[in-house]
Fold this protein.
Amino acid sequence: MAKRLVVANWKMYIESPESAKEFAKKLRRSAPRFSGADVVLAPSFPLLPVVAAALKGSKIRAGAQNLSAFTDGMHTGEVSARMLSLSGASAVIIGHSERRAKANPALPDARPEWFRGENDDQIALKLRHADAEGLRSILCVGEQERDAGGGHFMQVAKHLRSALDAKPAAARLVIAYEPVWAIGKGAADAMKPQDVQEMVIYIRKIIAESMGRTAALRVPVIYGGSVEPDNARALITEGGVSGFLVGHASADIDSFLAIVQACSC
Ligand code: PGA
């Protein structure tokens, strides 16, 4: 069986180089306890070199939470795929729902009016640049809400098809299915394992259409959205997923370790 993959999306939770370094070192010391899982820590940009240095020589990888849709030149404030790999990242999260444009302006959304966000074209460009740089791309897809007519499947298919037009290599691609309505809550609000499994099958079908059957079986499909120590085991054993993208529970070393361990037995 392929190793499970657990990605820590620290968002803006961990702020200082000292906390980031201490977390990475503690995780590294515990690594012998999770030999069945690959782990990626994705800090914010300024913390990337610190985390990468603390993990150097271990099997745990450093990743980024975003990258630029540009490759170089006159783009103030942007961070390219090349800059990420030079800073020690070997993976990058792309198209997270907190960065995407609102799927439907009529739907409730906690973000302010002025937030415009990324569209499918930008996300496909980012995927192309990350892949060309040899980074592992963790492509986030997921519906805003569920509806009785199955509109959530259409939304996920749209995210996937437009991004896969960038033709990333299957060996460097990870799909992170994150239903937006399940993000940032508690274990009780996460998606139920049977519903996750249904979507994973659907995602593999869309990958097969775009990239072929071999890729569909090979590309890891991970789940994100209120994964906590309490629900990790059920989601991994009954949800048909290859691992997790963990947000709030990844900022606490004990809860993150518990999730990683749930994936490694
Ligand atoms: P959460 O976030 O685990 O806090 O729900 C997951 C994510 O947004 O990647």
About this structure: Residues 153 and 199 are 8 Å apart (CA to CA). Strands lie at 4-9, 37-42, 61-64, 91-94, 136-141, 173-177, 221-224, 243-246.
